[in-house]
Write a structure and sequence with these properties.
This protein has 214 residues and is mostly helical. It is globular and about 60 Å long. The chain starts with 15 loop residues before the first helix and ends in a 6-residue tail after the last helix.
């Protein structure tokens, strides 16, 4: 049996892997990221049931927990997108515990693509549902696909005080030291809002100013 709480019978997997992931992420992130990540798991699970997707709860849980760890200060000078840093941390965690390669790949992909809309929904269920859980918690997409009572139960377990402003600030803090990693993705909107000196990369200019002759 999993943890004896959760909306509509959704529980955290009762495994050593899940317990160690919980401990690691709880110890290395603040309440904002931890509570958000747990909500992503619960919301993703509820959406998966509603959409009749056959997903692995343990893999979904690990992917949800790790999906934003790359926003943390240890990764500010990595030069990589925070999604990749998050995915690599999950990979290291899973490989150290001898998790099968295919499972590692599924978790890595789910995390790496969670801010790339329009693609994960057509991939494996874990990738689809990490993105769906993130979009639900951050953007309120498909808001009515989860019953109000279940939504309230999740938020009661993992509250979201001033979440909109706090998560945007966390996004900005996580990518501001490496603004080049926002080219072509949604975090450029965040830096444009918070950093008056930020200048977006321009794909058209990149094409026109490439070294290729016409």
């Amino acid at each position: 049996m999993g943890e004896q709480y959760g909306p509509a019978g959704v529980s955290v997997p009762d495994s050593r892997l899940a317990a160690e992931a919980t401990e690691l992420v709880r110890d290395t992130t603040g309440d904002l990221i931890y509570d958000h990540s747990r909500r992503v798991y619960f919301f993703g699970s509820l959406l998966g049931r509603a959409r009749r997707l056959d997903f692995d709860p343990e893999l979904l849980y690990v992917a949800a927990l790790f999906h934003d760890v790359g926003l943390g200060e240890p990764f500010h000078d990595s030069g990589r997108r925070f999604e990749v840093d998050s995915a690599e941390e999950a990979r290291r965690f899973l490989e150290a515990r001898r998790v099968p390669e295919d499972a590692v790949r599924r978790v890595w992909t789910a995390i790496a693509l969670h801010t790339t809309p329009g693609i994960p929904e057509f991939m494996e269920p874990e990738a689809a549902l990490v993105t769906a859980g993130v979009e639900y918690d951050v953007l309120g997409l498909a808001y009515d696909q989860i019953d109000a009572a279940d939504r309230e139960a999740v938020v009661a377990m993992h509250p979201r005080p001033a979440f909109k402003q706090r998560i945007l600030r966390a996004f900005a803090d996580g990518v501001e030291p490496k603004p080049e990693t926002t080219f072509g993705n949604v975090k450029a909107d965040v830096l444009a809002h918070y950093d008056p000196h930020f200048r977006r990369g321009d794909f058209v200019r990149a094409v026109l100013e490439s070294p290729w002759p016409e």
